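Colleagues,

For the teaching module next term, I've prepared a clean inverse folding example: a structure given as tokens, and then the sequence designed for it. I'd like students to try predicting residues themselves before seeing the answer, so please don't circulate the second half yet.
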């Protein structure tokens, strides 16, 4: 049986992936072809979506971007055997955009079946959880602290310190909350993980639960992500059925379970205390701090609130060790970050790399300049609350402190490219309109 991979990622679905999958299934049935269609995640090369891959004797061969109506021509070209076709890409991992990456958090995204726990295990999944179960809570916190992992949602707060605060808190119940309310314009890393490698987030949250002695987790998802909601909900159910979640995690005697909650999409609910208010069934408004959520969070109990990418980075840290993760990056910015390149970029998509690349390298060498072919005027980094960097500042390395020194912020890693036709005054007004409509200002 030949396996054909067609992404279920929102990128690909918006470009016709569902229609292509249906077209292939009908064509295969009519021809009596023995194939299995796997709906995988995206490898993050948006300009090639929908990119379909075929498992051949030479390895996986990719074709793209494929449009509905092209399946018949692909079959005639022998694409099931890796045949020649104008849209044949070849080995997807040899595409320069992909080959230049350092994939730790996203190492399975686009490769595995997102809802196959067996596939997840076969590609290193649950190795980090197994190691976490072999040591005590303080040992897990120590490993995460020594890795240098900081919050990937924008604040950059050291993850180990937050976890240790919750571990040391005395309470009859503690919580882990994954902030999946990805609201900044030009960001999509959280969505890609949840659609393409949901068990990675589940594993990271479970490790966080073991580290802090929390027994319940919540994934707070925005309503605008229907595919992520469906995939995450099914993945949680399958993890529970397999004993990865529940009263005894992997037979360890430690309890931890997860519930998926869907928010209404308010931008302000990306702020951690507003998110907690929404989770409690209240209107999403910012709470006064102190007390911090680590002391008094969800339902008044000590709570870890981490961004999706922060939690999804933990399995790799636990599996390969803190030193391995810490070896990537620069200064106080350790490990990797998934850059989300969008806007007027020739090669938009997700690029996971170690901290330290300059904006110029990201825009020119990786993003390929503008899609329009015109000169780059500026990039917006950090969403509507971030900053616009002109080409004169493209020597800025992607690093928390380097951005702060130039009055910017990394935010969630979104990089939106603009060519020289952009009206930056209009863009600034647009950003402020978003803030005035979506944010009350208390969280900024």
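(Answer key — instructors only)
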């Amino acid at each position: 049986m030949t396996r054909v991979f067609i992404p279920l990622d929102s990128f690909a679905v918006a470009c016709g992936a569902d229609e292509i999958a249906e077209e292939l299934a009908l064509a295969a049935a009519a021809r009596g072809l023995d194939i299995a269609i796997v709906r995988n995640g995206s490898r993050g090369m948006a300009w090639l979506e929908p990119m379909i891959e075929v498992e051949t004797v030479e390895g996986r061969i990719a074709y793209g971007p494929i449009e509905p109506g092209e399946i018949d021509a692909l079959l005639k070209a022998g694409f099931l055997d890796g045949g020649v076709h104008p849209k044949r890409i070849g080995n997807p991992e040899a595409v320069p955009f992909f080959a230049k990456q350092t994939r730790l958090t996203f190492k399975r995204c686009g490769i595995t079946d997102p809802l196959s726990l067996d596939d997840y295990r076969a590609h290193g999944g649950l190795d980090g959880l197994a190691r976490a179960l072999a040591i005590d809570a303080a040992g897990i916190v120590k490993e995460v602290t020594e890795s240098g992992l900081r919050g990937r949602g924008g604040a950059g707060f050291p993850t180990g310190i937050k976890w240790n605060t919750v571990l040391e808190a005395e309470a009859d119940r503690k919580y882990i909350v994954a902030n999946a309310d990805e609201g900044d314009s030009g960001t999509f890393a959280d969505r890609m993980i949840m659609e393409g490698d949901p068990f990675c987030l589940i594993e990271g949250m479970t490790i966080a639960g073991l580290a802090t002695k929390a027994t319940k987790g919540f994934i707070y998802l925005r309503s605008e992500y229907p595919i992520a909601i469906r995939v995450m909900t099914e993945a949680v159910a399958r993890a529970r059925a397999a004993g990865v979640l529940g009263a005894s995690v992997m037979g360890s005697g430690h309890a931890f379970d997860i519930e998926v909650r869907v928010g209404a999409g308010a931008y302000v609910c990306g702020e951690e205390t507003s998110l907690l208010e929404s989770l409690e069934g209240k209107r999403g408004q910012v709470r006064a701090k102190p007390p911090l959520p680590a002391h008094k969070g969800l339902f008044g109990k000590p709570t870890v609130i981490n961004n999706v990418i922060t939690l999804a980075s933990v399995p790799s840290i636990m599996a390969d060790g803190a030193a391995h993760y810490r070896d990537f990056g620069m200064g106080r910015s350790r490990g990797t970050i998934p850059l989300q390149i969008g806007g007027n970029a020739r090669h938009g998509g997700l690029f996971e790399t170690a901290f330290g690349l300059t904006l110029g390298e990201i825009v020119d060498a990786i993003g390929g300049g503008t899609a329009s072919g015109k000169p780059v005027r500026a990039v917006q980094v950090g969403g509507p609350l971030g900053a616009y960097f002109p080409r004169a500042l493209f020597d800025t390395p992607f690093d928390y402190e380097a951005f702060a020194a130039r009055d910017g912020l990394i935010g969630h890693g979104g990089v939106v490219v603009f060519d020289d036709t952009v009206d930056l005054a209009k863009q600034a007004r647009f950003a402020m309109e978003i803030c005035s409509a979506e944010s009350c200002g208390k969280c900024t």
